[in-house]
Write a structure and sequence with these properties.
binds ligand 2P0; 36% helix; Ribosomal Protein S5, domain 2; Alpha-Beta Plaits; eight-stranded mixed β-sheet
């Protein structure tokens, strides 16, 4: 046994975290190197849509490299184990104890698969939190939230924003200290109507999408609108931060809807081009705009990389918007499926 191995503080243990997904208003789309974003993004963390992950670890003197197994909803998931191998390869230089311990990772989500909620964001962030905690238990070294966010980014870009609750930026831009390596919590005093923002996710389709986000990011590399997109996101981000401070819902609506439709326009103009929106997605977009115009209620949409629509509104308008959703929008959803969510406070360690 080497000196390094005997230095670890524990032989075994188990850690458990819940971690929310997040929804971006200014979208991350395109990357260089290992999850370095082409443009800065801004999201808020959800409350009810989260992943719960536990990692059990035990020291094995016979180990000569990483050994782990992954179970999703109690079933062994070899496909995700392969993805996780790539992640672990990226982090074993920082966490050398990974070569000496066996890990059993067990994960489950509170939201259904392909529901328009980014499961990679909450999964990798939850795992990063668990690994950081184990690191602390074995070495005595506690990582900062930024370091944990950096770790989550190496699993999935958007995951770095799930390590914090509330509103978060990720990616460098001119007017604020924000890093490409990790997310940063927006510490500015935000208007109360954005501190209780509601997000009702309308499930237009549960089918697995034809083009993954990772493939979509790659198509930005030679995209004809790449530079224009980078400029647009930077401008929208600066505007959005002001809007959030001032409680300017009209400004918010303009940025949120422009970002959502621009994201899908980038997909439609990639080579090869593709569409993830469905006819019912567009119908819902039109109905939200009509309802807003007629009722002067601040309600708008954002869309992730899929056909499902996130309906955003302040808590004070919950009653009218929920009635509108029930009566006018659910008929365009798959089996009238939807998920009510809202801004949340971030991850929790389960003892
Ligand atoms: C976002 N999305 O900002 C954007 C908007 C989807 C649309 O980040 O390859 O799962 O793991 O870094 O983070 C989805 O992409 O991709 C995403 P990887 P990720 O939330």
């Amino acid at each position: 046994m080497t000196q390094k191995q005997t230095a670890y503080l524990r032989k075994e243990g188990v850690v458990k975290y819940t971690c929310p997904s997040n929804i971006a208003i200014v979208k991350y789309w395109g990357k260089t190197d290992i999850q370095i974003p082409l443009n800065p993004s801004l999201s808020f963390s959800l409350k009810h849509s989260f992943t719960q992950t536990s990692v059990s670890y035990f020291f094995d003197s016979a180990n000569k490299g990483l050994r782990f197994s992954f179970y999703f909803e109690q079933k062994k998931n070899e496909k995700f184990e392969q993805k996780l191998s790539v992640f672990f390869d990226r982090i074993t230089d920082k966490f050398s104890w990974l070569n000496h311990y066996n890990l059993k990772i067990e994960s489950q989500n509170t939201f259904p698969h392909s529901s328009g909620i980014a499961s990679s964001a909450s999964s990798y962030a939850a795992l990063a939190l668990c690994l950081s905690k184990i690191h602390q238990q074995l070495t005595g070294v506690e990582l900062s939230c930024e370091e944990i966010s950096n770790l989550a980014r190496l699993g999935s870009g958007s995951a770095c924003r799930s390590v914090f609750g509330g509103w978060n930026t990720w990616g460098e831009f001119t007017q604020k200290k924000s890093s490409n390596l990790h997310a940063s919590h927006l510490h500015e005093h935000l208007h109360a109507s954005f501190a209780d923002i509601q997000d009702t996710i309308l499930i237009v389709s549960k089918d697995k999408k034809e083009v993954s986000s990772t493939a979509g990011h790659q198509l930005m590399e030679n995209h004809p609108y790449k530079n224009g997109r980078i400029q647009q996101a930077n401008k929208n981000l600066v505007t959005l931060i002001e809007v959030l401070k001032n409680g300017d819902w009209n400004g918010f609506i303009e940025v949120a809807e422009s970002e959502a439709l621009s994201l899908h326009a980038l997909m439609m103009s990639s080579t090869p081009s593709y569409t993830l929106l469905l006819p019912n997605s567009i119908k819902i977009v039109q109905l939200i705009r009509e309802f807003r115009e007629q009722n002067k209620i601040p309600v708008c949409f954002t869309i992730d990389a899929g056909p499902n629509i996130h309906v955003l509104y302040p808590a004070r308008n919950k009653k009218e918007v929920n009635e509108f959703i029930q009566n006018d929008l659910l008929p365009y959803c798959d089996d009238k499926n939807f998920i009510n969510d809202e801004l949340g406070t971030g991850p929790t360690e389960i003892n």
